[in-house]
Amino acid sequence: LDKSDIKARNNFIASLQETAVTLFLIDGVTLLNAMDELDKDPIHRGMVDPKDKLDARNQITILENIIHSSIGNNHIPPMMLVITKSDVFVSETEYNNAIILIKQLLSELFCKGNQIFIGITKVSLGKNLGKGDDDSIIGNLEISTANNIHLPMLFAIYAYLDSLYDQADTATRKTYDSIMKNIRVEFGDKVQFYSNGVEAYAV
Questions:
Q1: Are 89 and 35 in contact (CB under 8 A)?
Q2: For 61-92, b where at least 16 C-beta lie within 10 A, e where not — what string?
Q3: What pLDDT score was predicted for residue 74?
Q4: Cα gap 39→62, rounded to integer Å
Q5: Contact between residue 193 and residue 201 where contact means Cβ atoms under 8 Å apart
Q6: Which of 86, 130, 160, 189 is the most buried (most CB within 10 A)?
């Protein structure tokens, strides 16, 4: 890292003290490239050389390095890991294997007793999306709540209200309770939650 990179990282770590929530986007293609071949669907095997696989893993572990520098000494706000372009995964098994890899690469986030609250969800803007020769969008664009695109924003709102809850008066807390209850319904089974490194079934 050069001086500007170190300064940017330190500024980001310092900003966590004032942040109610952090969203970390992991590109589905990058995640797929980072996976071991046998963990992929057969249609995706043999497409990535070892160097590209290592590069993909390094892109993901950037967050691990930041959290390692912060944990124990600083406040780590609730965090959502958002798997973008999730339509690249052709089966639930392949996606679940990708989540297992994330837990390995970002092990600091899933250590027991780490006092970090994590949500994981996948989002997509459609199927087989790409860019045409004239910068047009190719594929099937489908901007829909069915593809979970609203969940990262709802998670951010939920975490923000939760950060204000203890300082709020009774009437305001009732309002927060109502909003947060409705958001929990929206999460349903579309978000996996972990608290202190252990899977959490309620938020």
A1: no
A2: bebeebbeebeeeeebbbbbbbbbbbbbbeee
A3: 62
A4: 22
A5: yes
A6: 86
Mean pLDDT per 10-residue interval, the chain, length 203 residues: 74 74 92 96 94 95 76 74 93 96 92 88 76 64 76 93 93 96 92 90 57
- Tokens representing 19 are 């942040």
- Here the tokens at position 52 are 């590209």
CA distance 35 to 94: 10
The span from the CA of 33 to the CA of 37, in Å, is 9
Please give the helix or strand (H or E) that residue 27 lies within, else none: strand 22-27
- Separation between Cα atoms, residue 10 and residue 59, nearest integer Å: 18
What token pair was written down for 26? 């992991």
Q: How far is CA 199 from CA 5, 102, 168, in A?
A: 34, 14, 28
Alpha-carbon distance of 41 to 30, in angstroms, equals 15
Residue 170 CA from chain centroid, whole number:
33
Q: What span, in angstroms and rounded, lies between the C-alpha atoms of 55 and 17?
A: 30
> pTM for the complete prediction?
0.83
